[in-house]
Amino acid sequence: MPLSPGMQLRWRVGYWILYAIARFGMGLRIEGRQNVPRTGALIVAPNHLSNIDPPLVGVGVGVRELHFLARHDLFEGMKFFAWLIRNLNAIPLKKGKVSLEAFRGVIDILKRDEAVVIFPEGTRSRTGRLQEPQIGLGYLAMKSGARILPTYLEGTNERVIDLVMRRRPLLVRFAQPLDPMKIAENAQRRERYRRISEEVMNSIIALAAE
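^ thats the sequence. predicted structure below, dont judge the formating
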């Protein structure tokens, strides 16, 4: 699928550079890209293995420009990485926590019918295993009405040499998008947030088993 004409130049350039590195340098496979909605508010919801997950999700999505939540310390480390995430629409989180200010920023972006990456687990998995989802995803989906795209990542926590040598797979796989408004319609508010997040994680688990 071609890139959308409305993408900013910096995003298009960054996409092609990262695509070339991931696809030809590390053997990236992208599956289910036809499931990515090209328009409308969208929450891309992947499992979380490493700091390279957000840009790799951007490469996998391809057809849309994305926004990300990122820990504040990532902007203070390696200069190139800090520059990269700033130019790939990263939204800083104070002390690694999701603040009300960040939530409002995400909702504003979604209200403009743009796309945001939100990790259902809330933090990286140190073991590579899927973790329990946090209700923040359900909250943002309900407040914005955005569809949710469950996404499975594999290999982003592997050593670069193993990926370059193709000893380990590098994969981005997308499911069909979910409509949060149709999940647990009769549940109370907080329970509904939880049920939406759980439904997304169940979809990611199914993607992992394919």
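The chain is about 40% helix and 15% strand.
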